[in-house]
Design goal:
- With 201 residues, the protein is α/β, with parallel strands linked by helices.
- The protein has one domain: Rossmann fold (3-Layer(aba) Sandwich).
- The protein has five helices and seven strands; from the N terminus they run E-E-H-E-E-H-E-H-E-H-E-H.
- The chain is globular.
- The protein binds guanosine-5'-triphosphate and magnesium ion (MG).
Length: 201
């Protein structure tokens, strides 16, 4: 699947204001700074479609991007940014949860995990919460350029081992680098396949 057109549609903090045309959407979630916005730019081949920053906590709203006039990529705020005030953290948590639990068009949620780190409690808890709420999700290991291939493979293997303690079957897993632009085809083909299945059903 190839992206021929990517268009910013709306940013907001109210899920009622999200697009109502029912088109399938694919959202990106994960800790602040994990690379959600950068990945959207890499997938769409636009440098500045989604706003990125080296300072965590850049994305504060739900951002919809219409792709090929047919489906959406959604950039969400990150969770777990400790420098935010308690009130701000609560507000963002509520927004994310409200979006995930109520958005019927949410076709797959991509949970981004920084490939450099050992499994973090906050991500594992979030993934467990998705399971309890029966939210379809896949995992993307980001920033693959930041470590050697052997370390990358070791980290991913140990992450999968950890997930197997919780899950009978592993979710689909992808490895990307927004910097080196790797993993793009795998993620887009996965989305393309789901879109084709929806169209044929
Ligand atoms: P919030 O919106 O704050 O939650 O962050 P985010 O998850 O959207 O992260 P963002 O895309 O803004 O990227 C955070 C920082 O990581 C930026 O400095 C990016 O340049 C950097 N970054 C993102 N992806 C990659 C990657 O694949 N490789 C490298 N080397 N850096 C990356
Ligand atoms: Mg962001």
């Amino acid at each position: 699947m190839e992206i021929t057109e990517a268009q910013f549609v709306i940013s907001n903090s109210d899920i009622k204001k999200c697009p109502q045309d029912g088109k399938p959407e694919y959202a990106f979630i994960g800790r602040s700074n994990v690379g959600k916005s950068s990945l959207i730019n890499m997938l769409t081949r636009h440098n500045k479609l989604a706003m990125t920053s080296s300072t965590p906590g850049k994305t504060l709203l739900i951002n919809h991007f219409l792709i090929n006039r047919n489906w959406y990529l959604v950039d969400l705020p990150g969770y777990g940014y400790a420098q935010r005030s308690k009130k701000q953290q609560e507000k963002i948590k509520k927004l994310i949860e409200e979006y995930i639990l109520n958005r019927l068009q949410l076709t797959c949620l991509f949970v981004l995990i920084d490939s450099r780190h050992a499994p973090q409690e906050i991500d594992l808890k979030f993934i467990e919460w998705l399971g309890k709420n029966e939210i379809p999700f896949a995992i993307i290991f980001t920033k693959a350029d930041k470590l050697s291939n052997s370390k990358l493979q070791a980290n991913i293997t140990s992450y999968k081992e950890r997930l197997k303690q919780q899950w009978e079957e592993l979710p689909p897993c992808f490895v990307t680098s927004a910097e080196k632009k790797t993993g793009r085809k795998d993620v887009l083909d996965y989305i393309g396949q789901i879109n084709a299945d929806i169209q044929n059903s």
